[in-house]
Request: fold
Amino acid sequence: MNKIKNLKFISLVAVFCFVISYFGLLSPTTAYFYESQDNRYDVTFSLLTDSKTVSEKAVNFNLKGATKFEDFGEYLFDEVVFEQYITVKNVGEIPARVYIDVDIPAESAENGLEYIVLKTEKAASGEELPQITQSVVASGSQKGELKTMIETQLNTFNASFVDGISQNDAITILNAYNQSHLEYSNAPLLEIGESVGFRILYWAEYGLIENTLKDTSNISKLSYSSTITVNVAQDKEEAAPSITSAS
Reply:
């Protein structure tokens, strides 16, 4: 019996030494990270290179209706969007900027898929990010939280985003806003231990698939996909990844 216990102990020591040795042998230019695997997922990283892709996640979903994000009287927007929530935390030893790139494949774009990236407030080391809850709205009674947030963000970004704006002008502003998240000056800087959250909202823009929806049963047959890439880079402009968002 003692021999069995001793063998188990030796085995555990050997495994422990292997783990220590493995991490000890990692290149000093390696970035390591952890990504959870649900729809509201976390990315934890430690950056030791100039820049690194730390997460690339495929997202697939169906939408239960189309909407008009540019219509300030659209009260049902929150009920037909799909939301992906991401938190990113710096557990390394140097500050780093976070760049969120969202790719929409051609088929989804042809079926009217649009998106927006909304950034939450940062949380300091040891603090938790605010809890994100599903926006609940009594049908048609008032504008939802997400719709209000989009209108506020886009109007702050470009004062031309106001009630009555045309769809083409609204989409031009939306695309410029999403692209701005990939610029060095707008990418959130995470000090050591800090976290930041991103809410990525997807919807089918009614005006882009109006003809498809003449048969109202079609919306339930439209499947959508997207790829979300999280890049991190040292806090210097020349280290920023070269990304042009394709939307």
Confidence is low (pLDDT under 50) at residues 2-37, 135-139. Residues 64 and 220 are 6 Å apart (CA to CA).
